[in-house]
Specification:
The protein has 282 residues and is α/β, with parallel strands linked by helices. The protein is built from eleven helices and nine strands. The radius of gyration is 19 Å and the shape is globular.
């Protein structure tokens, strides 16, 4: 498996591939790969001639320096995992300097208000960092299709908005959340959980499923209050937020309408580790 460490060598290779008419699928990651990432890569392999996976821990999307420092860097293990999927997968593992040169700062973006909902309220500047790195990676890799998981659903919507506003020539593919057997959404953070915490974290998905059932007969406010009450009784999990949002703009639902589509979002802490999950409600 070939690993490209600089954008110059990568661009030369991609130009050659495109001149031969090959399509390029792209899966941007921050490494610490797991089965959820592999499911994205498999989707990309099905749709494209070759697939690039970037492995880059992006400093501009962290609002907490400790989180950035603690984020796992496991390139060797990541490459070994990707090798199990077959050929025609290539890795781009740049340095911070290769991406940002000497200016390690995020650009400022407007995502028409999407950036101020949910995660945006709790992670200052996060989506500017996401927009900055995704835009730069798209400009370097120039993929035909790029794949993102629905676990970070707000991020997925923001990337679609980025592509639309900047007229970037890439098709964004959202992929279903890949879950552990317990229902816990796969995340690189899960490996930091103790055995007990990992088991108890399945409570998040269980609560989402019950909330979906209740949403059929109860108001959005009543469902949110029920979720808050359930988390208040849990000895290990601390709810940061629960939100029921309209898919058009991720605004909080005040009154349900038959013609709208809704999704429920949860962020919670266990053992000081932040977990997020979401589920379609209708």
């Amino acid at each position: 498996m070939t690993i490209y460490y600089t954008q110059n060598t990568l661009k030369t290779f991609i130009e050659t591939q495109k001149s031969e008419g090959k399509t390029i699928g792209f899966v941007p990651t921050m490494g610490a790969l797991h089965k959820g990432h592999l499911s994205l890569v498999r989707n990309a392999m099905t749709d494209n001639d070759i697939v690039f996976v970037s492995v880059f821990v992006n400093p501009t999307q962290f609002d907490n320096a400790t989180d950035l420092e603690k984020y796992p860097r496991t390139l060797e293990a990541d490459v070994a995992l990707l090798k199990t999927l077959g050929k025609n997968i290539f890795v781009y593992a740049p340095s911070v300097k290769d991406i940002y040169n000497s200016d390690v700062n995020a650009e400022k973006f407007s995502f028409d208000g999407l950036e101020f909902e949910m995660e945006g309220k709790f992670r200052t500047g996060h989506f500017d960092g996401v927009g900055t790195i995704v835009k730069r990676l798209f400009e370097i890799v120039t993929p035909n299709n790029a794949y993102f998981g629905e676990k970070d659903f707000q991020q997925l919507m923001i990337i679609k908005k980025l592509v639309s506003k900047y007229k970037l020539p890439v098709h964004i593919v959202g992929c279903k959340i890949f879950r552990e057997a317990s229902g816990l959404a796969m995340s690189s953070r899960n490996d930091r959980l103790s055995e007990e915490a990992r088991k108890e974290s399945a409570f998040i998905y269980k609560t989402l499923l019950e909330a979906k059932e209740k949403f059929g007969t109860k108001s959005a406010r009543q469902v949110k209050e029920w979720v808050q009450k359930e988390f208040s009784k849990h000895p290990l999990l601390t709810l940061e937020y629960v939100e029921i949002a309209n898919l058009k703009n991720l605004k909080t639902v005040k009154r349900k309408s038959k013609n709208e589509t809704y999704r429920i979002f949860i962020a919670a802490f266990i053992e000081n580790i932040r977990l997020i999950d979401n589920l379609a409600l209708n």
